[in-house]
Amino acid sequence: MTPQPAEQQWIEAFMRYLQGERQLSSHTLQHYGRDLQRLSEQLELLQLGSWSALTEKKLRQAIAMLHGNGLSGRSLHRLLSATRTFYRFLNREGWMDSNPALAVQAPKAGRRLPSTLDPEQMQQLLSPPNDQPITRRDFAMMELIYSSGLRVSELVELELQALDLSDATLRVTGKGRKTRVLPIGRLAIQALQHWLPIRQLWNRRGAAALFISQRGTPLTTRAVELRLAYWGEYMGTQGRVYPHRLRHSFASHMLESSQDLRAVQELLGHTDISTTQIYTHLDFQHLMQVYEQAHPRARRKPRD
User: Is the pTM here over 0.70, yes or no?
Assistant: First the structure.
């Protein structure tokens, strides 16, 4: 058992554990830190000054107050998950012998279906309007996200050596530092082949990243988000275009065509298949729309 630090240093020790042993991404670490900070502030309002004094009853009160202040069920579910993980760490280190979050449940949240683009919208979005260098880069990014179902964090961490264009595959490191090999579609390969000569010209600093800026520096997730939002508006795409929307579209189109949920789970890098099952709801939603439009006894809007 490691020496016990002062209680105010428990979160710092926990964050070092998540980064060092769990090897979580900086994005996930920020979520953990923000959720625990939010709970800490709520506990102060309940005049509870220490993590060791937290009880299941007090935690329920804090969750109820946060929910009453407008925090969604989805956000509370994530906060409770972070709290359980935090106390499991404290238990492991021998600094606490209980976990007050184990029996506490977040209010049920309505299941929010991911936003997708249909194949025709994707085709329109992925039609480059010009052959400018930055256009080549941006459309190579979009093609690759849609072709292989990448997370934006996986995209910006991709290195050139992860590509094998001759074999039409790429090696991706996802959540939990787990590696998976993914196929690359024909059009994505063409887009990458158009981008790579530009990358060579821009790469004056010897960056390993596959996608870089004109200054030769690796792109950030925020930069990718801004570029996709720009192209979505420029191309007249319905709704905002963002990296995860392309990933959702990939999953939805793959499932609709293959009906193979397990394969889609593997491609997306989901640990739990229940995470992937949300895309079956999208398909069912489409079936209901077809049914209501086509079946003579289906619900119809009354005529004026």
Answer: no
